[in-house]
Amino acid sequence: MQLDKNQLLRFTTAGSVDDGKSTLIGRLLYDSKSIFEDQLDAIEKTSKKKGHDGIDMALFTDGLRDEREQGITIDVAYRYFTTPKRKFIIADTPGHIQYTRNMVTGASTANVALILIDARHGVIEQTKRHAFIASLLQIHHIIVCVNKMDLKDYSEEVFDDIRNQFEEFSSKLYTKDIRFIPISALKGDNVVNRSTNMDWYMGAPLLNTLENIHISSDGNKTDARFPVQTVIRPQSEEYRDYRGYAGRVASGIYRPGDEITVLPSGFTSKIKTIDTLDGELKEAYAPMSVTITLEDDIDISRGDMIVKTTNKPAAVQEFDTMICWLNKTTSKPRAKYSILHTTNNQKAMIKDVMYKIDINTYSRNEEDKELGMNDIARVKIRTTRPLMIDEYRDNRVTGSFVLIDDTTHETVAAGMIL
Amino acid sequence: MSKYYLNYLDELESEAIYILREVWAQFQNPVILFSGGKDSILVAHLAKKAFYPSKIPFPFMHVDTGHNFPETIQFRDDLVEELGVQLIVGSVQESIDQGRVAEEKGKNATRNALQITTLLDAIEDNKVDCAIGGGRRDEEKARAKERFFSHRDDFGQWDPKNQRPELWNILNGKHFEGEHFRAFPISNWTEMDVWNYIQRENIRIPSLYFAHQRDVVWRSGSWIPVSEHLKLEEGEEVHNKKIRFRTLGDITITGGIESEADTLAKIAVEVSAMRKTERGDRSDDKRSESAMEDRKRQGYF
């Protein structure tokens, strides 16, 4: 294995049992030898006990007792498999219960969204929902798998028709790279191996597509952003005067000698060194965790951001944003919340709810101002102090935030800044 | 292809360092739960990287069941001294002596579940608000649902159906007094990733992971080491085998596998060909389908 080059690819799947999602995941895991014998034994036993024919792959992804008993997926489950080319993390999200909240969570870190369509049913409400959320969360690549092709005689017409249905509404989405693959997860057509039943399909099978999809230029290499997590001040003689700023590069590229500005204070300096335990680096880029030292002694603490002097984010106290409501408690008008944005923790208020979006029809509702679980809306947020923000579409790290209810400490909303 | 991307091990490393730094920044009194197994050794290694050139700012907390491999304890003491960190030991034996818990009875009695009380007592006594663990989502199905920052109520309990959603890399560690968090920086690592990384970084691990000769007994499908705590059942025989351990738990419940792998490179090759999960040789997980979930709900690691 070429360990030194292999990339990590995170993808999200969404759907219900009927789409054959579990079968597909089961097949990817099984064919890449990521399901172990003892796991398979346990699943077989339970499947038999429940009276299922064959192996119920959903039992592999549903880990909690309640999920097994009720036959539903409650929460996002993370699954892993590796091929000689890549390591994959699947965020497997349930199709029904609290679907929006879970899909948004799974999509927030994904490079690719996998959308399953049942060839017998074509595009349904759920398909639009998945596509909308993938687009809202700015996933750069969507793979639409038209599944159960075996039940439609592997017909090219059926596939083309579904593709047209999808493209009719997908022109409204941000995501531009959308690929279509006709598959049968059950029979294995075009999952790992090219199907001999669909000679008319000229593209690559699913696994091959996942292995080769180009993701390294998806990140933002232009706007250098470094949110400071903590200050490193060793208590030893050897490093008595050391002051390092620890953080993870959000975007852009940093090099020693770069002219930088610290926000919000506005002090300027130059990068002296970029340190790691394994030695000094000549450059640092996302998502590297490093420690930066500066030429000058400046007062910097957690929540500050080190940026290049020539390219600064907006420092604002009021901004427009899409938010997804994640909590059973509804929003309170003009109520205060804690806002977590990068490493910054401030107070914020929802000033105005401009409209809510129906994610099944993509229509807007400007009358209803109360936000409840799974709602997606465009709102105005005001914060007590300026935040250093970029638009979410340019920067997933500096363009995202969560709101926390101070009375419960629960995370109640996730935001994507416009 | 652009040169500005990380390979998967570097990305996992960077994610773990980010999480460890968030723990340090968001909590008053965090500790690393240190068992002497490879996963907690890995977390210690990542913590060294996260705070360099400072020392690791977290004390290590070890829940000592009294049923340890002597090699593990020696390894723990050496590492603690080398890193210059404080060691907090919670003793299951003391919990038994104080009447906080009672020893299990019967053939398959272990001290595994008893650790929960000792762990929660140690967390409370030391006013720990975040305990960093080496749990991984690929280990067990209940763990696949874990967050990086996992909330525990004031009884130390986990409520898997009511977890805080975790989006992007924003971690919410806010809590009320008496509650605490568990943090899992290596959530996204698989067993294979751990071994590849240990090999790449040449991290020192206990000799028990390497193939060695040992007196063992065949029980429940694996080789259980002979120790002062092991009572031979009727029909059981002591064999001397060349074995190694894939995970390290209590000496009474950790089964070894026959192996010739005596270097990190050989272990990585062996693990990649494994067809059973590493916890498949841990009798603590075999008790029922939801054994792990049940223990985790109560406050287990």
Number of helices of chain A: 8
Point out poorly predicted stretches of chain B. Answer: none
CA radius of gyration of chain A is 24 Å
User: Helical content of chain B, roughly?
Assistant: 25-40%
N-to-C SSE string of chain A, H for helix and E for strand: EHHHHEEHEHEHEHEEEEEEEEEEEEEEEE
Gross morphology of chain A: globular
Oligomer: heterodimer
The interface involving the most residues is between: A-B, 85 and 65 residues
In total, how many beta strands of chain A?
22
Low-confidence stretches of chain A: none
Question: Could you tell me the strand content of chain B as a percent range?
Answer: 15-25%
Short description:
By secondary structure, chain A is of the alpha+beta class. Chain A has helices at about 20-30, 35-50, 60, 65-70, 100-105, 125-135, 155-170, 205-210, and strands at about 5-15, 75-80, 85-95, 110-120, 140-145, 175-180, 225-230, 245-250, 255, 260-265, 270-275, 280, 285, 290-295, 305-310, 315-325, 335-340, 345-360, 365, 375-390, 400-405, 410-415. Chain A contains 8 helices and 22 strands.
What's the topology here?
The complex is a heterodimer of chains A (418) and B (301).
Chain A: E1 7-15, H1 21-31, H2 37-49, H3 58-61, H4 65-70, E2 77-82, E3 86-94, H5 99-107, E4 112-118, H6 125-136, E5 141-147, H7 156-170, E6 177-182, H8 206-212, E7 225-232, E8 244-248, E9 253-254, E10 259-263, E11 268-276, E12 279-280, E13 284-285, E14 289-294, E15 305-308, E16 314-325, E17 336-341, E18 344-358, E19 363-365, E20 376-389, E21 400-404, E22 411-417
Parallel strand pairs in A: 1-3, 1-4, 4-5, 5-6
Antiparallel strand pairs in A: 2-3, 7-8, 7-15, 8-14, 9-13, 10-11, 10-15, 11-12, 11-14, 16-20, 16-22, 17-18, 17-21, 18-19, 18-20, 21-22
Helix pairs in contact in A: 5-6
Chain B: H1 8-26, E1 30-33, H2 38-51, E2 60-64, H3 70-83, E3 87-91, H4 92-97, H5 115-125, E4 130-132, E5 149-152, E6 180-183, H6 191-201, E7 212-219, E8 222-225, E9 238-244, E10 257-258, H7 264-272, H8 291-298
Parallel strand pairs in B: 1-2, 1-4, 2-3, 4-6
Antiparallel strand pairs in B: 5-6, 7-8, 7-9, 9-10
Helix pairs in contact in B: 1-2, 6-7
